[in-house]
Predict the structure.
Amino acid sequence: MQGLNKKVLPIAITTTIGMVVYAQFVLGHFSSCFAVDGGPNALGLHLSYSYEDALHFLEIRDHQQLFCYKRFISVWDTIFPMVYTTMYISWLAVLFRNWKWLSLIPIVRIVSDWVENYVEIMMVDHYLNYNILDDHLVSWGAAMTSVKWGLSLVVYGIILYGVVRILWQKFNYQNEC
C-alpha cells in the first residue's frame, strides 16, 4: 500500500495486542480489590464526573478498598498510559510520514492521565484523612478526565483518518490500473 510504513506495522500490531492484554488481565486483575457489585469501577472511565459521582464512588468503598484503589492508580494505572501511548504512536508512524508532530497529542494525553491519577490519589487521601471530599480536587480530576478522553477521541480520529486515507489511495490506485 502506498504511504503505509510496513516496517513499523508489526510494532503497531504487537503494541495493540499488548494494550488489550494489559487492560484485560493486568488492570482487570489488580482492580478486583476495590470492585463493588453494581457500582462504578473507577472515576476516570467516563468523559467526566461530578462531585456526587466522586462522593458516591468513595462512600461505597471501605478503607481497605480505597487504599487498594490508590495503589492501583499509583502503579498499574500509571503503567497503562505508557502502553497505550506506545500503541498510539506506533499507529501514527504506520499511517503518516510526519508522525513525529502528531505524536505530541498522545504525549499530552499521557501527561493528562498521570495528572488525573495524581489528583485522584489526593482526593482519596483527603477523603480518608478528613472524611470529606474536596470539591476543588474533584473539579481538577474531572477536568483532567475530560482532557484525557478528548485527546483520545482526537487520536482515534486521526488514526481513523489515516486508515481511510490509505484505503482510499489503494482503491483509487487499483481503479487507475
